[in-house]
Amino acid sequence: MNIFLRKPKGFYDVYLRSPASDKTNTHYCPGCGHGIIHKLIAQAIEDFDIKDRTIMISPVGCSVFVYYYFDTGNVQVAHGRAPAVATGLKRANPDSIVISYQGDGDLAAIGGNNIMQAANRGENITVFFVNNAIYGMTGGQMAPTTMIGQKTMTSPYGRNIYNEGYPLKVVELLATFEATTYLERVSIMDAASINKARNAVRKAIQCQIDNKGFSLVEILSTCPSNWKMSPVEAKKWIKTDMITYFTPHVTKDKINERESHKVEKIRLNSEETKSKLDLPEKRDLVKIDMSSVKEKYKNPRIKIAGFGGQGVLILGNMLAIAGMEEGFNVTWLPSYGPEMRGGTANCHVRIDEKPIGAPSVAKADVLIAMNKPSLEKFEKEEYLESGALLIYNTTLIDIEPSRKDVDIIAIPATKMADDMGDLKVANMIIIGAYMEKTKLINEEALERALQTGVKRKNLMDLNKKAIKAGMDFVKNLK
Amino acid sequence: MAKQFIKGNDAIVKGALLAGCECYFGYPITPASEIAHAAAKYFPLLGRVFLQAESEIASIQMVYGASSAGRRVMTASSSPGISLKQEGISYCAGSELPCVIIDISRGGPGLGNIAPEQSDYFQIVKGGGHGAYKLLVLAPASAQEMCDLTMLAFDLAEKYRNPVCILADGYIGQMMEPVEFPEPLTGREYPDWAVLGNKETRQNLINSIYLDPIELENHILKLNGKYERMKKEEVRFEKYKTDDAEIICIGYGVVSRLLKSAIDECRNKGIKAGLLRPITLFPFPEKEIRNFAESCKSYFVSELSLGQMVEDVKLAVNGLKPVHFYGRTGGVVPSVTELYQQIEKIR
Q1: A16 at B interface, C-beta within 8 A
Q2: Which residues of A393-426 are buried (b: 16+ CB within 10 A; e: fewer)?
Q3: B201 with A96: CB under 8 angstroms?
Q4: Which of A185, A201, A323, B214 is spaced 20 to 30 Å from B184 by Cα?
């Protein structure tokens, strides 16, 4: 038997997903433009032999059931979000051909930002935008593209420019975006127009196949049911009314100028993955002689405070990393919440032989005060344990601590750093002082911390010198 | 592998990449932005997709797209951003798309503040979007768990074809701790339901519409079957000093850490307190909580809110023993002493 009339191969032969008893026709109303537009797309899919690669996106609107008809991969999505979903699909799988099919409410109203942003990114997707100047599925309400004076269920006196503004010109808008490649407005008002629409549909899909970037075809279409017209009248209304405002034309065609661009996927093996992720090599712990650490310096809860820029956070970070290298449980918590107000930066560090519960240090065993407000605030009884170790920076603190029940190291860290040529190493001098006093952190562990935690490697020698200076300062106190 | 000293937020990203996450779509928000920063750095280095979306709404829909394509995919945000994502989360659940959503929760309602709060329990655990769906919800309490539970989240999402949420607070996100990272996952195959843009999967459909009420009812029952299975197979929790405990303390995230220290203080003073920390908030460890009703005198729940999870505890305990509650909110984190005093009061 010779078959003269058949569906394009982009369609299923039988629409098994449709719950209707008639599985050969669409669910669209007589005279609706969707059927014609579907067919133009299905033909292009067949002619380009891309149905295996193609993923059709069904929007919300009358075309919500696009997936009943297209013999392609199918994804149904939320109202207006097709361009975002298309972005996810295409970025995940650049080899697929992703087609977003959207109506005027979906694309131009609720999804307005999504289409603009996808267009402006130059997503390599193809969008078919069906503009019939009305909401179809929900029962004939006003669309952003509803014509001036057009009566709908929600503009019963006609669209009024002072209340609803003017109809939105989508292709003209998207043409202003540098990244868009191909934009055209066509209609289905007569055979000649449908022919033009066919070419536009093919060109838009070819644009994606060639990896030339974003393409969109706006198709002026009919909605006889909600326009309350016969199919013939509806086509005529496009000609007499719609095209006087929505001019059919190639709005933008940069296909020949654009370079084909596709992100090639790299595949890494396990070793490469770990190396790119900056994961550390396996190494032995640094041995520490706990017998030389006094009981009161074990398992410290440390609070470090100062001005922003004094390296307070790094100071804490170094102690914690060094503690980790020695096999202790450690936590580091930056100032967070209300405490950070008042111009001080602070952090809490815990170094413990047992697993650590609270990472926050309400009452500290060790207070490192880099400036005056920090000393004044945190030496108070509510913040500092009796018998605690208090290290403070005498260069910037011109008062004596009021607490007499704590061990005190008064060290001119900022001045010492200045003498060494870089104010920034004051924090390292303090670290040295802490190490020498408590013996909890040794030099090997601290050096590892410097290797992993300090970005500016050219400062390594200076940092080490500063730490030594801090240690010597405490040694000379004895 | 050796331990790395790292922020919880960064551990999430490395864990996700080791678990084979191929795409990240997100929108910046404090205090979750480090996740976007680390993702922006590492995803491209590994040949994976990172894209800053135009909005929270778009980012969850991009997740929907990449998940439809069978890829392991994630997004991260904080409370107000999660509110915006709720529509998309409902669609992911309805279309049975696995994905991982990170919520580093902050103070609300409205713009609130950026300090740690746990007021997202309702919107994450009880739904938040429209329709009868559930997220599987994991609540990490350390940087190590930020990595481990993120990796687990990808497996569970795929096992159940359901979104999984990591619900953490700003403390756990901002805190640095040593993390031991596992070996990267290799050889993952795309699931057979995915739409891969090839001949084999051409017949696949990702969809959440069921026009016929009977069909939708069947779909919901099927989803519900998954949630019931999660309740049987996925309940996770940690116990701390509960063996002889007369007061069972319950808290998740950073609160569980504070409670541990408070419990240590209780024990020093002879108060027999212990901790049950839910690791899964859905499914909730209701049986394990109820079982203590036989041996304990009372329960003590603490949250960084005026009480959300406590409702689930009360449902589990079902009036068998008193359930006491103490919460701070607005970003205020109670001190260990404060919690100790509250526990001491009810002994």
Answers
A1: no
A2: bebbbeeebebeebebbebbbbbbbeebeebbbb
A3: no
A4: A323
- Say which of B62, B88, B331 has its CB closest to residue A87: B62
Q: How far apart are CA B22 and CA A91, in angstroms?
A: 10
- Are residues A362 and B206, on separate chains, in Cβ contact within 8 Å? no
Residue type for position A148: I
Beta strands in A353-461 (DSSP E): 364-369, 384-393, 407-411
CATH of B3-233, one of 3.40.630.30, 3.40.50.970, 1.25.40.530, 3.40.1280.10: 3.40.50.970
Q: How far is B47 from chain A, CA to nearest CA, in Å?
A: 5
Cβ distance of B115 and A452 shorter than 8 Å: no
Residues of A in contact with B174 (CB under 8 A): 333-334, 336
ipTM: 0.96
Q: In the CATH hierarchy, which fold is given to the domain comprising B238-346?
A: Rossmann fold (3.40.50)
B174–A84 C-beta distance less than 8 A: no
Which positions in chain B touch A359 (Cβ < 8 Å)? 171, 175, 177, 254, 257
Residue A22: how many other CB atoms lie within 10 Å: 9
- Cα dihedral B171, B184, B68, B204 sign: negative
B27 Rama class: left (phi>0) / alpha (psi -120 to 50) / beta: beta
Residues 289-318 of A with CB under 8 A from B: 317
Top residue of B172, B177, B186 to mutate, by most chain A CBs within 10 Å, is B177
Domains of chain A: 34-253 (3.40.50.970), 290-477 (3.40.920.10)
Would you state the pLDDT for residue A1?
60
- For residue A457, what are the CA distances in angstroms to A274, A422, A446, B183? 22, 15, 14, 29
Q: pLDDT tens, B189-214? A: 999 999 999 999 999 999 999 999 99
Q: A189 to chain B, minimum CA–CA distance in Å? A: 32
Min Cα distance B126 → chain A (Å) is 21
- Spans of all domains in chain B: 3-233, 238-346
Give residue A297's identity as a one-letter amino acid code. Answer: Y
